[in-house]
What we know:
By secondary structure, this protein is an alpha+beta fold. Helices cover about 15% and strands about 40% of the residues.
Amino acid sequence: MKKFMKWMPISMMILGSMFMFAACSDDNEPTTPEEPGTETPGAKVSIQLGYESIEVEAAGGSAEVTYTLKNAGTNPKISGTSDQDWITDIQAADGKVTMSVAANTETADRTAKVTLTYSDDEKNAASAELTVTQGAKAEEKFTITIPGECGSTWIPFEIQPKDQSAQYFLNIRPAEEMEGFVSDEALFNSDMSTYQQLADQYGMSLNDVLIATNALVSGPLEDYLFPKLSPSTEYCIYCYGVENGKLVAPVSKVNAATTAAAPVDNQITIDVTNKVASTVVFTVKTTTFDAYALGVFDGAASDADMETALMGEGVSIYAGSQQLPLDASLEVGKEYAIAAIGRAGNTATTKLFVTRFTAEEGQVVENLTLDITALAFDGDEMAAHLGSDELKGNALLFDHIETNGTYTFTYPFTTDELADLRSQFEEQNPGVEFTDEEFYGVLINTFVSYCSTDRTSLWFASEGSWMVLSMTIDEAMQNYKVGAAAIEVNESTYSPVEEIDKYLGTNASKVLVKKAGNLDVKKTVAMMKKYMDSKSTYSFKTSIKDMSKIRSMKE
């Protein structure tokens, strides 16, 4: 399998100009103009600048400095020139000199002289000079290269970090979109906006969300690509260092363009590996990383109807091989079709590929069992026991699920959060009584994208009272059972770390969870209501792990 990286477009945030200038050292004190009314009649005209020199940042922008005229004549005019072409559009009016300064892409400071020239109707003349020093571009921590030709929907790239252990964020945007970001900080804030929303919603730190969603990478990347791009479009691939949720290294960039849409030799094979109506799972295998549209249809749909739908709006676009569960229950005994077609923009690049199947009935389990074991551990001791330094400095909550069901979903809440959620949930549903099991079932389904689906999970938690909620479902999706286990997380309740060995076959999945008391209860209740009002539609369920930005291009 090859590695590829998904492009997750993020909405653009345009901030004000980042350009800064500052007075020089004590050697460059501002000049002091004479008091008005002290001009000498017939004396020589002069231009007095507020500063004789200014400093600007490497990013460039627009700069300004004040000026006053002494003994000015009638209809005075001031023009400006520079001895360096990186300073342009010099304007002087109303006591201000403004200019545009290009970004310094070199790793050395540079200096320019700006000359202001005075004239008037009496043919008086005067001039003044301003020294502009621009700082060097910060040394880039990453080298990004384009190792080969691009496709109509993908661009290959490689990254070599100077510090092999540094964590960094990697993304791609249309080149014209990048022009709207006037600073590295503006780009960073825009990139982080979606992750920060998740952090705020679930009470996690930005850094924890970045780690949990695999948004940060480290080490060199060789033989990678961004797929699912638009044809005939110039893009900017960029990355920057991130540490503890903060921008710690300047943005490194490289531009590359996709080719025009054209036919490709991408052979797409669709295999339905689980035909159970409630839990259909299928795999898609491809021979290239060109993009394709994918959809599920009623078995009565013709090839022409499916192709028209797949070339329309709002369809799911993929690249490379996939294993996908269908996020909706089908009708037992009915025929369905899964179809795919290569697509670059609005152009079909392959023929239509179709696999038809009949949905089957899954196994029904009448008497579901669910036993939850919940334990608390000291993170430092567990880090030493499992050899995982990332567990240090945290209290840990562990759960193990025993069930005869096929699927499980688990998520821990603080007892205070549950009480607040129950209260507001009942306020939004007046007159309707919910048992604990019904309430927990709605809550787990609301959080299903963030639940652990493993039978054994290890969570980061704050000290306090917690309730581990879990739900098990049979293969037919006809019966389910909800359970809950209370656990106190504090030093007095920590179990010996050896206790975890009874439950670990290999390693527990580590799921980062919010801190106690930071859950946005109102938003969660709104999500629960949305879940209850939703209707089943054909779509593909994608977990946080599936959303990881990096995939291998190598076998």
